[in-house]
Design a protein that fits this description.
By secondary structure, this protein is an alpha/beta fold. It folds into two domains: 155 residues, 3-Layer(aba) Sandwich (Rossmann fold), CATH 3.40.50.720; 99 residues, Orthogonal Bundle (ProC C-terminal domain-like fold), CATH 1.10.3730.10. The chain is 51% helix and 14% strand. An eight-stranded mixed β-sheet has the order 3-2-1-4-5-6-7-8. The protein is elongated. The chain starts with 6 loop residues before the first strand and ends with a helix.
Length: 269
Amino acid sequence: MAKKHDIAIIGAGNLGIAIAKGIAGAKLAKPKNMFLTRRHLEKLADLKKQKFQVTSNNIEAVQNSEYIFLCVQPKQLPDVLKEINAVLDPEKHVLISTITGVEISTIEEHLEAEMPIIRAMPNTATAIQESMTCMCGKNVSEEQLKDVKTLFEALGEALIIDEDLMKAATVLAASGIAFFLRYIRAATQGGIQLGFHAEEAQKIAMQTARGAASLLVEGHNHPETEIDKVTTPQGCTIAGLNEMEHQGLSSAVIKGLLASFEKINTITQ
C-alpha cells in the first residue's frame, strides 16, 4: 500500500478483533490509528493495552477513519448506519461490510449518500492469518479495491469476485471451514479405531490435512496429480479411495455444499 490508513471497525467482536490484529501485525496500520467500537468495552481491554483506540462511540470512530469495517450483526446494521450517516463522506470514506448475506443494495437503502462500498466474506481462520476472503465492490476506485484486498491479504488470501457469487463463496469458504474440520474429526475417529490414542490420531490427521493443502498451494497442481503420486497398483491407498467413493464421499461433499447454498438463499432473502 502506498500509505497507511486510519481504520474503524464497527462491532469489534471475534471477527473484528481478528481483522484488527491481522492488519496491525502486517504493519498496514498502526494500532493507534485503528478505532475499535463495542458496547461493552471491558471485552476490548487487552486491545486497549496494545494501543488500539477503543471506544463505544461509532461517530468518533468514523470521523477519525478512512476505511470503515462493518462487523455488526445483520439486525444491527440499520441502526448503525442511521447513527453514522451524518458523518459519512463519499470523498473520504469507504464502507467494508463483512456481514453475512447482506447485499450491497441493502446497505445502500440505509445510506443518505452514494458511498464506495466493499462487501467481503472472510472465514474464522482470520484469527491465525489463514483466511480465504472473497470480496466485491461498488462505486469504488481500482486503488480502493486494491488497498482493501491488501488489507485482507494480511489475514490470508483474498479474491475479488462478482457479487452474485458471494453466497456461494460463503458456503465454500466460510462454511467450508466446518466441512474440512468434520473430515479431520472423522479421520481422527478412524485413527482411534486403528489403534492410536485420540491425541495422536488427531495430530496425525491435522498435519496430514495441512500437508495435503500445502502440496496444492505450493505446487499449483490439480488434486488428482498429487493423488496419483500416492496410489500404487493393488495398493492400500487406492483400496481406501475406492471404498470412500463407493460410500459416496465426493457425492456427499457436493450435496452438502448445495444444501448449504440452498439454505443461505432462504435465510438471506
